[in-house]
Amino acid sequence: MPTEPEQTTVTEPVSLDPAHRVLPSHTSPLAAGASKPFGGPVGEHAALGRHWFWSPLRVALLLAVVGLTLSWFGKAACIQQYPGADGTPELDWRSGRPYVAMCYSDVVPLYSAERLNEPGTFPYKTSWVDNEGTSEAQVRYMEYPVLSGLFQWVNAKLTDAWLAGAEAGFLPGAIPVAVYFNISALWLAIAWLVTVWAVAMTNRRRPWDAALVAVSPLMLVHAFTNFDTLATAFAAGGVLAWSRRRPMLAGLLIGLGAAVKLYPLFLLGPLLILCIRAGKVRAWTTAALTAAGAWLAVNLPIALAYPVGWREFFRLNGERGMDPDSLYNVISYFTGWPGFDGLLRSGETPVWLNTVTAVLFLACCAGIAFLGLNAPIRPRFAQLGFLVVAAFLLTNKVWSPQYSLWLVPLAVLALPRWRLLLGWMVLDALVWAPRMFFYLGEDNRGLPEGWFLGTVVVRDIAVLALCALIIRDIRRPEKDLVRASGDDDPAGGVLDRARDVLIYRGGVFSRRSPAASARSR
User: Fold this and answer.
1) Which of 300, 397, 445, 517 has its CA 20 to 30 A from that of 487?
2) What are 313-344's pLDDT values in tens digits?
């Protein structure tokens, strides 16, 4: 019979008094150096939490506002206008401006590409024909998940209202796409502020770590590249809700996040493993069912009313080939082996490529599940969450550059080592420059593909290094900075300081005796 696992040591909760906060200027050389212009590291006898206004959260939010402002200025070059042939203002994308100025944002071309600029259109109902009059003509619909599509449509309606106010003389005027971008950017900025707030509130003894989210170089480059800050806000909010022992709210936010981008749904996998180990499956079931219900509540009306348009997102993702940023393109380019695209024929689904990506991701998930059940101490939620999302990005056939934003809040919660995280984020953000000049084309003095893919390899190695460090912290909990400061799992909610009831050791599952389980509760 399986032997009963060793009793896991569970300490008493640590006080959340400001005096017991973990101070980065004491634990991180980077933070200590950055504090010198402001008086240096906090003194040993400093009175913390006494200022009437400036708290770590408010400082982080202020830093985020500054960072988002700089990010907007980085994209502003792509919403400039010039007088057209008839004197009408037009969007100035001449001479490869989006790539030379590195200001490209999907938000700008999608305004017309998704027919949002046309009156009477509605996502998933409105269709159009690409390559009309050719053998490659194809009927198209809105290609984004439902909440992302509706977000774009609402912003287009707000743009119409703004332009009407401008014509009446009440508001400043601009070309429609510039107004649309700025309205979208406002909501995307608010979503990133929510992400910063949620990270600070999740680990309340380490609120200063949220400053890494606030000033992330990835945010500076990609806050307005696409609509991913909406997904990070829902995902980070779901983690916060779970940490506060509110599984239904966590499930609601995760389900809504999955209706924006798929990745928040991946967080339910690590939660399942941890809840099985801690005997908290009921809380996970509540969260999972609520997430499924929230996703269905958003998607079902559109799916029933416009089934063909609703399936467009899934169709395009199934038929899509390997992305330039993907591992598969790197292998094909540097080895000269065309295998990944060899079975991709025009108009057909790349079944082999899709199968390879699915198998690799599921294999990674199986390994992460084993790690979660076999670790000497139950891993933290953020640790497994980061590993799963990173595994998806590394094995997926598409890694759009803004997807790296998904990792930022999870990385800060999982591995709060400032120099390491800042180094990775700088490397990841720098991929944007060679990517833009690769798309500019060698004929226009752009970069060869090899230079761009070289930076992709460096980015992938950096993410793998973070995964390796997190796995080390899981296997050797004494190396984990969060646990070293006296916490167990700040994001764990019902898992925080719970005792294990099921562990996988030596090829068998070991279950705690009923008496021990009762004592743990």
Assistant:
1) 517
2) 999 998 888 888 888 888 888 887 766 655 54
